[in-house]
Batch of 3 targets.
Target 1
Amino acid sequence: MNRTLFLSLAGAGLLLSGCSSVLVERDYDAAFNFQTLETYAWKHAVQPETGVPRIDNDLNDRRIRQAVDDTLRAKGFTLAENPAAADFHVEYFMEFRQRIESSGGSVSLGIGSYSGGRAGSLGWSTGANVSDYEEAQLTIDILEPNADRTIWRGRGLRRASSSADPAKLTSRTQEVVSRILKKFPPQ
């Protein structure tokens, strides 16, 4: 494999891996004592219907709940047998949005020499490539059960996947949930 082909393939791999990244945002109540939390329960035993078939999907609901349970369990939290006795409640929301992107303009400068002297060139691009894509957003809320108020919120955004492979969907869901909950509880 020649060097140019290798660099092209490596660049394409980096570009594709960049498309799968997750942008995560978090917010929390700085006055809340998160060190007191040990047990949790789901706010809703059954995910509330939104009227959007893509979101109201019990397969995705089970994937998300399992990923949250696995992540919280790995952090030392226990799913309460009695939801009323839990230290905190968990709920989530899904959303899909259409997004538009365009390539930015660019300028290039070339300078060189040849047997008759030197030459230069200037080129520019207006960024005419426009495309649309779908963005998926998963929001996970941690609630104080007695007051039913949000004490921590994490949100993950990424390009939506059109994969129909259940193993890939499960893996991507686990990745997004673990990235969202990575800094829960806040230190």
Target 2
Amino acid sequence: MILNVRINNFMVFSNDVEMSFEADMHTKKFMENVYSQNNFNVVKSAVIYGANNVGKTCVLEAIRFIKGIMRGEAFIPPSGDLFNIYTESNELALGITFMLDNDVYSFDFKYLVDRTSKEGIVTYESLKEVSIDKTKKQKEKLIYTRDINSDSKFINSTYLTKLMKEVPHESIFLYQVEPQNKDAKEIIDKYRDIFSRFTDSVETVRLTTLQLSKTIDYLKKDGVEAKLIKELVCSIDTDISDISYKEDDINLPVLEDIEDASIREKRSKELLSLVSVHNGKEVRSMLYDSRGTKEIIALAGYI
């Protein structure tokens, strides 16, 4: 669960921008939208709104980039530009505070980007454990900090502190080392697991590129997820009374807009086996439903 996202010199943002998901407990009207744990109060859902070109999409791109860094992977936004084009600095500063297994962590990093190649290195990174006491005072406990221009330290591990000075900065420290020391390996594995499980829980989607595959997979299994998908789709598009996956032996047309010929026939049958019910009549969703309805059906699988 994301509690806070911090952005600086990333895409449209030239100065510090912070998006907090922590709930304002003075507002009692929407308390059903608040999740509370260990003195943290977090909104379950939030909406980013505003005029065109103010950075709404860039917030999501920042989350995608943070996710990639936390997985030791490279990620370049569709525009190819990471840094704000109106600043002279090539160094991005991003951070995220998140809750996992009722523990809260704060991870910040700086990423220096070559403006030509778009390649970069992690110049700074810091991981902390965060808590809030009953007086609402926030406390941070440092786990490690690594700075290319200053001292680096992994708390409670002189072995890992020494390694920090020896390994490159192409990605964050957790993915640059394979410790031979047993205790150090357990520490690295622990925080890799935390990062992996958290980032696995973060899904960002673009409506223009949504795939129906998630929805189809859930409808095939016909479990709890399928029931939730049906309820969501029918509540948004009231013209639909049911959505399901039904395979049969009839000859179905092949959808030519599927580029990969090797999977075209299989994917065509899967897509055409998606059936929606309008006014009591079953129809092939791919051939009958509007683009907006198909986007709703696809999004339901992600939700």
Target 3
Amino acid sequence: MTASRWFTSDTLPAQGVIELADRSFLTKEGRVILYDARTRLVGREEIGDVCPIFEGGANALGCFSLLHGIYIYEPGDTRLADMMVTTLTHEMLHAAYALLAADDLAAVNGMLVAEIARVPADDAIHDRITLAMRGSEAARGTETFALLGTEVHPDGGLAPELEAVYARYISDRAALVGVYEAFEPVIQGIVDETQRAIDQLAADESANADGRARWEVDRATHEAERQRYAIDADRYNALPEAERGNWSVSWTTPDGLILTQPLGASLATRLAQLEAFRADLDARAAALTEAEAELSARRSHVEAQLADTNALLEAAYPGQTLD
């Protein structure tokens, strides 16, 4: 297998590349390839110019070509620092694959075919390889080489002969894959937490809106009952006092009992019920108002949380947001 030369002192890469390489478990040969590929760290705007766009409009996080070398996306969020380790080693492996002599390339491709066949069919690595190929079957070998090398380390490792190939470039592949496996849930966990907050807020706002609507219906019912009571009370008060006792009222209770009361007692019962109804409405209104204030404050918090999550997603994967 062929390795490129070490950089001379006047062509050393930028300090940021060196510092990232120091965290990326590279062997001397891996570092030689990385530096000889003129590796550069670029921001969000430039990565979209120099690297291809995935289907759906998402930018790649890095890319390699024989003509232009390696570009690594440098997000502006310290929470994403470990993402760059995976990207850098991934692109370095593309460069290493491109340097393989014809005989070595055939042997490595045979190992890759055998090894990827051992990975369960439902493992996401298969879809990731297909996506990275962008419809080019010629890219299957290099994408499989880079993705297996940085993201897959089963118990006991890959086949020994393939691990020996990777060992030329990566000093501790288990640790490297560990960085990827530890990092991937970070973003997904933040996204999931934000989505749960959004969903819970929407459910609570809907429940409170339903409660407010029921309160409005009950308030209107109370007002209608209050007006009817006022009319009946005025009629009762207009009766001569001697006649008031001659009148009674009968009604059926919710459980089917028929009750009869003198008109005056009936009016007193109705007034007590109206006052209890009013007290209940007032308590419910206070609770609804308090809940609405809490929901308003929570909405501000969730909107800030969503903005932060989207900023993280944009930083990690330019063009992607949580809708």
